[in-house]
Design goal:
The relative contact order is 0.11. The chain has helices spanning about 85-95, 110-115, 125-165, 165-175, 185, 210-215, 260-265, 310-320, 320-325, 340, 350-390; strands at about 1-5, 10, 25-30, 35-40, 45-50, 60-65, 70, 75-80, 120, 195, 200, 205-210, 215, 235-240, 250, 255-260, 275-280, 285-290, 295, 300-305, 345-350. Among the domains are: about 1-120, DNA methylase specificity domains (Adenine-n6-DNA-methyltransferase TaqI, Chain A, domain 2); about 205-350, Alpha-Beta Complex (Adenine-n6-DNA-methyltransferase TaqI, Chain A, domain 2), CATH 3.90.220.20. The strands form 7 sheets. Strands 13-20-17-18-15 form a 5-stranded mixed sheet. A 4-stranded antiparallel sheet has the order 2-8-5-6, with helices on one face. Strands 4-3-7 form a 3-stranded mixed sheet, with no helix packed on it. The chain is of the alpha+beta class.
């Protein structure tokens, strides 16, 4: 075991306010990870970036290209040729940094505190092998993340074309065949528009308040002082905090679980698989479809969707209309949109047959996103399980 101060130096980042950054391809990192882009680097690749201060989790990030670190984070440089920096990255990421912070109002990780930490330092060749094994798992997780971003963009593009820009209707109005769809789907779109109080919409479509289209319900928090609501709980219960780290709008797990007695204390109970969850405060706007039955706290509006407006349609509708949703939030300490203010927002609805066609188109997309998320969770668990086994020699890298 070797003290960190003997193998690595932590360098302070440099202030770079968002309004002083120039557009570019250089990633900018802060205490929680990447926070923007710039046109010039502060340090050369590769980079190990460690969060330095803040109430939230301190990030541990790796960067393969030249980068900038602002003054809320450190970047590491090796002090010995016997250290493979990416090996240290995996080690520090596994151990974490939050338990090393000092202070209350703005907890900070000092260089002295980090420098006193002891890390195992096997031979350099073994470090590189360990980094390669764990890195291959990280690469697959990152590939899944990028694939999911592409898939989600595909679904959004289709929604925008059909239900915002009305491209198929405009094509038929101009005497053209709608592009990229079969004749049966194209026949579901009209060839003219009608006037409405929200502007021109396709002929035969309707406008309804969202509260009349889907069932909008809230949640609650059973007393945390009552063990019978929590101890040994098996039912998922979520707060907006669970959504802060989601990389796709699918909820697979929650930090806390409730017992049957706890579920009974929440008026909306256990919501079914497929429920769309919208955070209504702290902050407004997190969105995810529940992949399992889940109960919610008071920081959500849950949309129980149906064939008139599917969860995939409403997810994209909320994303598209988020500015309108946020504009209806009230509050001084923090913004919050109530169910009362959310329910009247108008939704432009296509006929049921077209809704079903859209759902059929995007359902496989979100199924693939969900499968990728499950795989990434499995890979992350494998990675975190492998590291101590690799260090102990229980698993060989040769």
């Amino acid at each position: 075991m070797v003290p960190a101060r003997k193998i690595v130096a932590l360098n302070y980042g440099r202030a770079l306010k968002a309004d002083t950054r120039s557009p570019g391809k250089v990633p900018v990192f802060g205490t929680n990870g990447q926070c923007g882009w710039h046109d010039a680097p502060l340090a050369k690749a590769p980079g190990l970036i460690l969060g330095r201060k803040g109430q939230g989790p301190l990030g541990v990030k790796w960067c393969d290209k030249d980068f900038w670190v602002i003054d809320t984070a450190y970047y590491a440089s090796t002090l010995t040729p016997d250290l493979e920096l990416k090996y240290l990255y995996h080690l520090v990421k596994y151990v974490g940094l939050n338990h090393l912070k000092d202070g209350t109002s703005n907890p900070t990780l000092s260089r002295d505190t980090f420098g006193a930490q002891l890390f195992p330092l096997p031979p350099l060749a073994e470090q590189k092998s360990i980094a390669a094994v764990l890195g291959s798992l990280d690469d697959k997780i990152e590939l899944n993340r990028r694939m999911n971003a592409t898939l989600e963009a595909m679904a959004r593009t289709l929604f925008q074309s059909w239900f915002v820009d009305f491209d198929p209707v405009r094509a038929k109005l101009d005497g053209h065949k709608p592009q990229g769809m079969d004749a049966a789907t194209a026949a579901l779109f009209p060839s003219s528009f009608q006037y409405s109080y929200v502007g021109h919409i396709p002929n035969g479509w309707s406008i309804k308040p969202v509260g009349e289209v889907v069932d909008c319900v809230g949640g609650g928090t059973p007393s945390t002082a009552e063990p019978k609501y929590w101890d040994g709980g098996m039912h998922h219960w979520t707060t907006p905090k669970d959504f802060s780290s989601l990389q796709a709008p699918i909820l697979l797990d929650t930090d806390r679980k409730l017992t049957d007695a706890g579920i009974a204390k929440i008026s909306s109970g256990l919501l079914p698989v497929g429920t769309l969850l919208l955070s209504s405060r702290a902050p407004v706007g997190y969105l995810a479809i529940a992949a399992m039955p889940v109960a919610i706290n008071q920081g959500f509006i849950a949309l129980k969707c149906n064939e008139r407006a599917s969860n995939f349609f409403m997810l994209n509708w909320c994303q598209t209309n988020m500015a309108e949703i946020e504009s209806r939030a009230t509050g001084t300490t923090f913004a919050e949109i109530s169910k009362q203010n959310f329910r009247p927002i108008p939704v432009v609805l296509p006929p049921k047959e077209l809704m079903a066609a859209f759902t059929a188109k995007v359902e496989p997309i979100y199924a693939k996103i969900t499968a990728n998320l499950h795989q990434s969770r499995t890979l992350a668990t494998l990675r975190d399980t492998l590291l101590p086994k690799l260090l102990s020699g229980e698993v060989s890298v040769v």
